Amino acid sequence: MSAQTASAPLPEGWREDNRAMWDERVPVHVAGKYYDLAGFRARPDVLRDFETAEVGDVTGKTLLHLQCHIGTDTLSWAHRGAARVVGLDFSAPAVEAARALAAGLGHGPERAAFVTGDVYEAAAAVPEPSYDIVYTGLGALCWLPDLRRWAETAAALVAPGGFLYLAEFHPVTEMLDDTTGTRIVRDYFSRDAQVYDLPGTYADPDAVTVHNRSVEWQHTLGDVVSALAATGLRIEFLHEHDVSLFPRFENFEIRDGYHRFPADHPRVPLIYSLKATKG
């Protein structure tokens, strides 16, 4: 099956509602324990071990982070040796927080730049036309209805000889019940918009919030791979991981720094990662 976009009309105001939701949550994330910015300033590297192993040495390379939020992952690549990192996000408060974090760590915009822009219009917002590495991290693709347009935009920003690296939550998890992850309760192939009205945030479920409407989309693994392959990028690998970064299911345990199912639970892919190169 070829890559698909959302199969129903887009909900009215989806982009504005999503932006308002994220804008409101930035101060909660900046001040809270989840992102622990005080700890990050002391040890500015929050990248996952599989990411650093799969991306490899970034020394001297340029890196663009699409949908960067408050910039902790972006700046972690700088501290891993990238010559220049650029982060893009559609939330102006998130970009301001990222700039402040970078400045506090001694990075000027020539080393770590953050810009506000819609990911679909990234080429017009970022300072350089292409980058050695285009990176997008966990929890990004669900906010985008048009996967093919995202793939075309991201691929166009990869410099010749460079690559796109994607780490994302596995869509299989969205099929399963939220308690034990043992029952299939949702349609894997659904591409309709999922509209939520939920207070709080994954970083602080008890936070008092007003802008609670959000709109998300589910993308199958086949859709992601097909969308990137259609751009001409060469898929180098697709890896699946049985770890998560948050307690997605109620029976999760923390082992080796990751959220996981209990040891006697059948293993389920929780995250996938992908590398696609430009010849």
UniProtKB/TrEMBL annotation:
Residues 64-162 form the Methyltransferase domain. CDD domains: AdoMet_MTases. Its EC number is 2.1.1.-. GO terms for molecular function: methyltransferase activity. It comes from the Bacteria. It is an enzyme of class 2 (transferase). Pfam families: Methyltransf_25. Keywords: Methyltransferase, Transferase. The keyword Transferase applies. The keyword Methyltransferase applies. GO terms for biological process: methylation. InterPro entries: Methyltransf_25, SAM-dependent_MTases_sf. This is Class I SAM-dependent methyltransferase.
